[in-house]
Write a structure and sequence with these properties.
199 residues, alpha/beta, Rossmann fold, 5 strands
Length: 199
Amino acid sequence: MARRLGVTGGIGSGKTTVCRIFRVLGIPVFVADVVARDLMNNNENVRSEINLIAGKDLYSSGMLDRKELASLIFNRPDLLRRVNAAVHPSVLSLFDEWADSEQVPYVIMESAILFEAGADSLVDRVVTISAPVEERIARVMGRNDLTREEVIRRINNQLEDEEREEQSYYIINNADNEMIIPEVLKIHEDMLRLAAKGR
Protein backbone atom coordinates (compact mmCIF):
# COMPACT_ATOMS: atom_id res chain seq x y z
CA MET A 1 0.00 0.00 0.00
CA ALA A 2 1.30 3.44 -0.95
CA ARG A 3 2.54 5.83 1.70
CA ARG A 4 0.88 9.24 1.71
CA LEU A 5 2.35 12.74 1.71
CA GLY A 6 0.20 15.83 2.28
CA VAL A 7 1.24 19.03 0.50
CA THR A 8 -0.27 22.23 1.86
CA GLY A 9 0.29 25.97 1.95
CA GLY A 10 -1.70 29.16 1.67
CA ILE A 11 -3.07 30.64 -1.53
CA GLY A 12 -0.19 31.70 -3.80
CA SER A 13 2.45 29.75 -1.87
CA GLY A 14 3.36 27.56 -4.85
CA LYS A 15 1.78 24.17 -4.03
CA THR A 16 0.99 23.53 -7.70
CA THR A 17 4.58 24.23 -8.77
CA VAL A 18 5.95 21.88 -6.10
CA CYS A 19 3.45 19.16 -7.05
CA ARG A 20 4.43 19.53 -10.71
CA ILE A 21 8.00 18.55 -9.72
CA PHE A 22 6.72 15.53 -7.78
CA ARG A 23 4.68 14.51 -10.86
CA VAL A 24 7.83 14.65 -13.01
CA LEU A 25 9.35 12.23 -10.48
CA GLY A 26 6.44 9.85 -11.17
CA ILE A 27 4.42 10.53 -8.02
CA PRO A 28 0.62 10.71 -8.51
CA VAL A 29 -1.05 13.82 -7.07
CA PHE A 30 -4.64 14.07 -5.80
CA VAL A 31 -5.64 17.75 -5.98
CA ALA A 32 -8.28 18.13 -3.25
CA ASP A 33 -9.41 21.59 -4.42
CA VAL A 34 -10.20 20.29 -7.94
CA VAL A 35 -12.10 17.29 -6.53
CA ALA A 36 -14.02 19.60 -4.15
CA ARG A 37 -14.92 21.91 -7.05
CA ASP A 38 -16.16 18.93 -9.07
CA LEU A 39 -18.32 17.72 -6.17
CA MET A 40 -19.74 21.22 -5.65
CA ASN A 41 -20.77 21.35 -9.32
CA ASN A 42 -21.94 17.77 -9.90
CA ASN A 43 -22.93 16.05 -6.65
CA GLU A 44 -26.68 16.54 -6.01
CA ASN A 45 -26.39 16.23 -2.21
CA VAL A 46 -23.56 18.76 -2.03
CA ARG A 47 -25.39 21.15 -4.37
CA SER A 48 -28.57 21.14 -2.28
CA GLU A 49 -26.54 21.52 0.94
CA ILE A 50 -24.75 24.58 -0.51
CA ASN A 51 -28.05 26.17 -1.58
CA LEU A 52 -29.40 25.52 1.91
CA ILE A 53 -26.36 27.19 3.53
CA ALA A 54 -26.49 30.12 1.08
CA GLY A 55 -30.24 30.55 1.50
CA LYS A 56 -30.66 30.89 -2.27
CA ASP A 57 -30.01 29.09 -5.57
CA LEU A 58 -26.36 29.45 -6.55
CA TYR A 59 -26.72 27.15 -9.58
CA SER A 60 -29.00 29.18 -11.86
CA SER A 61 -26.45 28.88 -14.70
CA GLY A 62 -26.14 25.12 -14.12
CA MET A 63 -22.74 25.52 -12.44
CA LEU A 64 -21.91 26.91 -9.00
CA ASP A 65 -21.63 30.72 -8.95
CA ARG A 66 -18.29 30.66 -7.12
CA LYS A 67 -17.97 34.45 -6.92
CA GLU A 68 -21.37 34.75 -5.26
CA LEU A 69 -20.53 31.94 -2.82
CA ALA A 70 -17.20 33.61 -2.01
CA SER A 71 -18.88 36.94 -1.29
CA LEU A 72 -21.39 35.18 1.00
CA ILE A 73 -18.87 33.20 3.05
CA PHE A 74 -15.69 35.22 3.22
CA ASN A 75 -16.83 37.41 6.09
CA ARG A 76 -18.83 34.60 7.70
CA PRO A 77 -16.52 31.95 9.22
CA ASP A 78 -19.59 30.00 10.37
CA LEU A 79 -20.86 29.65 6.76
CA LEU A 80 -17.36 28.81 5.51
CA ARG A 81 -17.16 26.01 8.10
CA ARG A 82 -20.57 24.67 7.04
CA VAL A 83 -19.61 24.65 3.35
CA ASN A 84 -16.36 22.82 4.20
CA ALA A 85 -18.30 20.31 6.31
CA ALA A 86 -20.66 19.69 3.36
CA VAL A 87 -17.81 19.02 0.91
CA HIS A 88 -14.74 17.66 2.69
CA PRO A 89 -15.91 14.30 4.06
CA SER A 90 -16.61 13.21 0.44
CA VAL A 91 -13.23 14.56 -0.74
CA LEU A 92 -11.42 12.63 2.01
CA SER A 93 -13.17 9.35 1.27
CA LEU A 94 -12.42 9.73 -2.47
CA PHE A 95 -8.76 10.34 -1.60
CA ASP A 96 -8.71 7.23 0.60
CA GLU A 97 -10.08 5.01 -2.20
CA TRP A 98 -7.75 6.55 -4.78
CA ALA A 99 -4.63 6.25 -2.58
CA ASP A 100 -5.37 2.59 -1.82
CA SER A 101 -5.65 1.79 -5.54
CA GLU A 102 -2.30 3.35 -6.56
CA GLN A 103 0.60 0.90 -7.05
CA VAL A 104 3.45 3.31 -6.25
CA PRO A 105 5.77 3.89 -3.25
CA TYR A 106 3.80 6.99 -2.21
CA VAL A 107 1.07 9.37 -3.32
CA ILE A 108 0.38 13.05 -2.64
CA MET A 109 -2.70 14.91 -1.50
CA GLU A 110 -2.44 18.59 -2.39
CA SER A 111 -4.81 20.72 -0.29
CA ALA A 112 -4.82 24.37 0.75
CA ILE A 113 -6.83 23.46 3.87
CA LEU A 114 -5.27 20.10 4.70
CA PHE A 115 -5.24 20.71 8.46
CA GLU A 116 -8.58 22.53 8.60
CA ALA A 117 -10.28 19.65 6.72
CA GLY A 118 -8.73 17.00 9.00
CA ALA A 119 -6.90 15.45 6.03
CA ASP A 120 -3.63 15.35 7.99
CA SER A 121 -5.04 12.26 9.75
CA LEU A 122 -5.05 10.41 6.38
CA VAL A 123 -1.41 11.07 5.45
CA ASP A 124 1.90 9.84 6.88
CA ARG A 125 3.72 13.16 6.61
CA VAL A 126 2.95 16.75 5.63
CA VAL A 127 5.04 19.32 3.77
CA THR A 128 4.10 22.98 4.08
CA ILE A 129 5.02 25.35 1.24
CA SER A 130 5.65 28.84 2.64
CA ALA A 131 6.32 32.11 0.86
CA PRO A 132 6.42 35.80 1.84
CA VAL A 133 2.94 37.32 1.91
CA GLU A 134 3.73 40.07 -0.62
CA GLU A 135 4.99 37.49 -3.13
CA ARG A 136 1.86 35.39 -2.59
CA ILE A 137 -0.40 38.42 -3.17
CA ALA A 138 1.46 39.30 -6.40
CA ARG A 139 1.27 35.69 -7.68
CA VAL A 140 -2.47 35.38 -7.04
CA MET A 141 -3.30 38.79 -8.53
CA GLY A 142 -1.20 37.85 -11.56
CA ARG A 143 -3.13 34.64 -12.27
CA ASN A 144 -6.65 35.28 -10.91
CA ASP A 145 -9.02 38.13 -11.50
CA LEU A 146 -8.82 39.29 -7.88
CA THR A 147 -8.06 42.62 -6.25
CA ARG A 148 -5.37 42.97 -3.60
CA GLU A 149 -8.10 43.26 -0.94
CA GLU A 150 -9.79 40.04 -2.11
CA VAL A 151 -6.48 38.14 -1.99
CA ILE A 152 -5.71 39.47 1.52
CA ARG A 153 -9.19 38.42 2.65
CA ARG A 154 -8.55 34.88 1.38
CA ILE A 155 -5.16 34.75 3.07
CA ASN A 156 -6.77 35.88 6.34
CA ASN A 157 -9.31 33.04 6.09
CA GLN A 158 -6.51 30.45 6.02
CA LEU A 159 -4.10 29.31 8.71
CA GLU A 160 -0.93 31.33 9.23
CA ASP A 161 2.23 29.78 7.72
CA GLU A 162 3.64 29.40 11.25
CA GLU A 163 0.64 27.32 12.36
CA ARG A 164 1.02 25.02 9.35
CA GLU A 165 4.80 24.74 9.80
CA GLU A 166 4.43 23.70 13.45
CA GLN A 167 2.26 20.75 12.38
CA SER A 168 4.39 19.72 9.37
CA TYR A 169 7.21 17.21 9.00
CA TYR A 170 8.83 19.14 6.12
CA ILE A 171 8.88 22.83 5.14
CA ILE A 172 9.78 24.27 1.73
CA ASN A 173 10.44 28.00 1.53
CA ASN A 174 9.21 29.02 -1.92
CA ALA A 175 10.41 32.63 -1.97
CA ASP A 176 11.39 33.76 -5.48
CA ASN A 177 15.09 33.49 -4.80
CA GLU A 178 15.01 30.00 -3.24
CA MET A 179 15.90 26.80 -5.06
CA ILE A 180 12.96 24.43 -4.51
CA ILE A 181 13.97 21.46 -6.70
CA PRO A 182 16.74 20.23 -4.31
CA GLU A 183 14.24 20.50 -1.42
CA VAL A 184 11.66 18.43 -3.32
CA LEU A 185 14.30 15.82 -4.22
CA LYS A 186 15.31 15.49 -0.56
CA ILE A 187 11.67 14.89 0.47
CA HIS A 188 11.22 12.44 -2.42
CA GLU A 189 14.23 10.38 -1.30
CA ASP A 190 12.99 10.45 2.29
CA MET A 191 9.49 9.27 1.29
CA LEU A 192 11.00 6.46 -0.82
CA ARG A 193 13.00 5.33 2.24
CA LEU A 194 9.83 5.45 4.35
CA ALA A 195 7.96 3.40 1.73
CA ALA A 196 10.76 0.84 1.57
CA LYS A 197 10.38 0.20 5.32
CA GLY A 198 6.77 -0.85 4.72
CA ARG A 199 3.84 0.29 6.84
